[in-house]
Design brief:
The chain is mainly α and 436 residues long. Helices cover 66% and strands 3% of the residues. The chain has 19 helices and 4 strands. A two-stranded antiparallel ribbon has the order 1-4. α3 runs parallel beside α5, α4 packs antiparallel against α13 and α8 packs across α12. It is globular and about 60 Å long.
């Protein structure tokens, strides 16, 4: 058994061992296990059954990780992405007042397109058409949006009639629970403790239980929650996608997931030293694993999946092969039997995780060419537009509309890819439709 693993994953040439790869897989799982509880919380706000989303999240993550490990042989984990799940809930369902069943159908259609363009090898070409500065801005903007959600959910930022927003009340116990979780997680992150986000959530939940701010669960281990409330719902509601507004939603699911996965894959490949002549070997297989996970996830009942930056934790402890990702996937299956803990994971428990992940995603700001206004202005509108409009799609629209204009003004119009001009008209229509 061990010899077969060494041979299949080429562990000898990668200068690693089965033990090291398994440890790396466990480290990656601990670092991203929070998604099992955060994703049901976020999608639950859209009206979806949290138990079903929990099971869908675990299964889609397990499938994505195992496929990534076996097909592409990379130590990169896949799970429903933070950011795109926020877009699903807060922009599409709550903001546009679209039923979650229809939104899930949008994910299903986007995943079919995702699969098709991956098989036809068009995905790389489409990704390349989007300027790198705007890709960086989208990642950072989603980070700020996620952080803003965390600050609001935790009670640190509240609505204020005089100043639009303001500090929340520090006389509320749950607000201090958020502050405690944020400080613990921040300290652990600074100290580079593996699984810092997950440990911070556990510490916050324990304090909440001890102080009575969180009610104790009736059990810890149980059978996996039923998928029935969400299973195949997306496929059955495809007919609901019958307007230009919903087609733009599908496009946005496609674009957001594009940028998230592509950027993360390249970044992790750079960290692990996989890049060869500025290209990522077996990238087609990695993209196929990702798109397959997204398709299955949409049928099970969860928002789009993507490669996880937390995979860097496993890579940092020596993970270099697909065995790391397979280990992470198997641990997600084990995690299926801990659904009762969902009751303990309140918004105050997940808020610090959202804020810290926002910090990590905002790091891409440093790579934007701020000295070139023709790209800095649209990038800034994307970054600032997402949290201020409370919409990821609106932020993307602002930047994509302005970008061709500023590039033409800078006499660089010929450098703009034809697809970007096409997206200009798409997002002008998008903004017009939203404001009818």
């Amino acid at each position: 058994m061990k010899e077969n693993l060494v041979r299949y994953f080429d562990l000898s040439n990668l200068h690693t061992t089965v033990r090291r790869e398994v440890l790396a897989g466990f480290t990656t799982f601990i670092s991203m296990a929070y998604i099992l509880f955060v994703n049901p919380s976020v999608l639950g706000a859209a009206g979806m059954d949290k138990g079903a989303v929990f099971t869908a999240t675990a299964l889609a993550s397990a499938l994505g990780c195992i496929l990534m490990g076996i097909l592409a042989k990379y130590p990169i984990a896949i799970a429903p992405g933070l950011g795109v799940n926020a877009f699903f809930t807060y922009s599409v369902v709550i903001g546009m007042k679209i039923k979650w069943e229809t939104a899930l159908a949008g994910v299903f259609v986007a995943s079919l397109i995702f699969m098709l363009i991956t098989i036809l090898k068009l995905r790389e070409a489409i990704i390349n058409a989007i300027p790198r500065n705007l890709k960086l801005a989208i990642a950072a903007g989603i980070g700020l949006f996620i952080a803003f959600l965390g600050l609001h959910d935790g009670g640190l930022i509240v609505a204020n009639k005089s100043t639009v927003v303001g500090l929340g009340s520090f006389g509320v116990g749950t607000t201090w629970l958020t502050i405690f979780g944020l400080l613990v997680t921040a300290i652990l992150m600074v100290r580079k403790v593996p699984g810092a986000i997950f440990i911070g959530m556990v510490a916050t939940a324990i304090l909440g239980l001890l102080t009575g701010l969180i009610d104790a669960p009736s059990a810890i281990i149980s059978s996996a929650p039923s998928l029935k409330p969400t299973f195949l719902v997306g496929a059955f509601h495809v007919g609901d996608i019958n307007s230009l507004q919903l087609l733009v939603v599908v496009l946005t699911f496609l674009l957001v997931t594009f940028f998230d996965t592509a950027g993360t894959l390249v970044g992790l490949a750079e960290q692990a030293g996989f890049m060869v002549n500025n290209k990522m070997p077996r990238v087609g297989r990695a993209l196929l694993a990702d798109s397959s996970s997204m398709l299955v996830g949409s049928l099970l009942g969860t928002s789009p999946t993507s490669a996880y930056v937390e995979s860097s934790a496993g890579i940092a402890v020596g993970g270099r092969s697909g065995l790391t990702a397979v280990t992470t996937g198997l641990l997600f299956i084990v995690g299926l039997f801990f659904s009762p803990l969902l009751a303990v994971v309140t918004t105050q428990v997940t808020a610090p995780a959202l804020i810290i992940v926002g910090v990590l995603m905002a790091q891409s700001l440093r790579e934007i060419q701020w000295d070139k206004l023709e790209v800095a202005i649209p990038a800034f509108l994307i970054v600032l537009g997402m949290p201020l409009t409370y919409s990821i799609s609106d932020g993307i629209a602002l930047g994509f509309i302005v970008y061709p204009i500023t590039m033409i003004a800078a006499k660089r119009g010929k450098e703009v890819h034809p697809l970007m001009y096409a997206l200009f008209f798409v997002f002008v229509l998008f903004i017009w439709i939203l404001n009818q």
